[in-house]
Automatic annotation (TrEMBL):
Gene3D superfamilies: Tetracycline Repressor, domain 2 (1.10.357.10). Keywords: DNA-binding, Repressor, Transcription, Transcription regulation. This is TetR/AcrR family transcriptional regulator. SUPFAM superfamilies: Homeodomain-like (SSF46689), Tetracyclin repressor-like, C-terminal domain (SSF48498). Residues 10-70 form the HTH tetR-type domain. Residues 33-52 bind DNA. Pfam families: TetR_C_6 (PF13977), TetR_N (PF00440). InterPro entries: BetI_C, DNA-bd_HTH_TetR-type_CS, Homeodomain-like_sf, HTH-type_TetR-like_transc_reg, HTH_TetR, Tet_transcr_reg_TetR-rel_C_sf.
């Protein structure tokens, strides 16, 4: 019997993951059965179960793959001189995942899939560990990027790098939540918003933090 090439195995795994992601995005994780996944990818149960034992492994693989790709993008950006600013980097990453990630699934559907992954971690310990590990990796990658901003003179050093990293991650998460809930949220909106915030300057006459004028009675 001829040996199956690694390229063929990788392509088949990709086929299964993309099909499962389309199903989850379209009808929801819990409403999707493995039979739905089999029908979507056009494969037998034996062919699919060779790679994944069930929906939990599929959703964990989708989440792990997403985190790995995002972290790689951030780490690559941290090595650039000068590193891309947050509006450019976040825009590129979100555009990749919301517009090009899954063939046959629109941006809102894929954003809803991401929200489902987040909520599923509340009941699935394995997925929660995957999400926590991915989040920690993203914080590390963003922290390295923040340090690169400082070395390039793009960012002051008076705020902890981890605080900046977590805020940028929260910005991306909030954008994804808006896309999932309301749809029609162009990535350009995020890029323009971040660019506008980055252009702000603090007036020299500004009051110190916490020095709020008293309200009139």
């Amino acid at each position: 019997m001829a040996r199956v090439s690694q390229e063929h195995l990788d392509a088949r795994r990709r086929q299964i993951l993309d099909g499962a992601a389309r199903c989850f995005a379209r009808t929801g994780f819990h409403a999707t059965s493995m039979q739905d996944v089999l029908a979507e990818v056009g494969l037998s149960a034996g062919a699919v179960y060779r790679y994944f034992r069930g929906k939990e492994e599929l959703i964990a693989a989708i989440a792990t793959e997403a985190f790995t790709a995002i972290r790689a993008a951030f780490e690559e950006a941290s090595r650039a001189t000068p590193p891309p600013t947050p509006d450019v980097l976040l825009g590129a990453v979100l555009r990749l995942f919301l517009e090009e990630r899954i063939k046959g699934a629109d941006r809102q559907a894929f954003a809803r899939l991401i929200i489902q992954v987040w909520t599923e971690t509340l009941r699935n310990e394995q997925l929660a560990e995957t999400l926590a590990h991915g989040y920690d990796g993203m914080r590390e990658a963003w922290t390295a990027l923040v340090n690169a901003y400082r070395e390039s003179g793009l960012l002051h050093a008076d705020v902890p790098a981890d605080h900046v990293a977590r805020t940028l991650i929260a910005t991306a998460q909030g954008f994804i939540a808006q896309q999932a809930l309301f749809g029609d949220v162009a990535v350009e909106v995020l890029e323009d918003g971040l660019r506008g915030l980055m252009s702000m300057s603090v007036p020299s006459t500004a009051s110190p933090a916490g020095d709020v004028p008293p309200r009139e009675a």
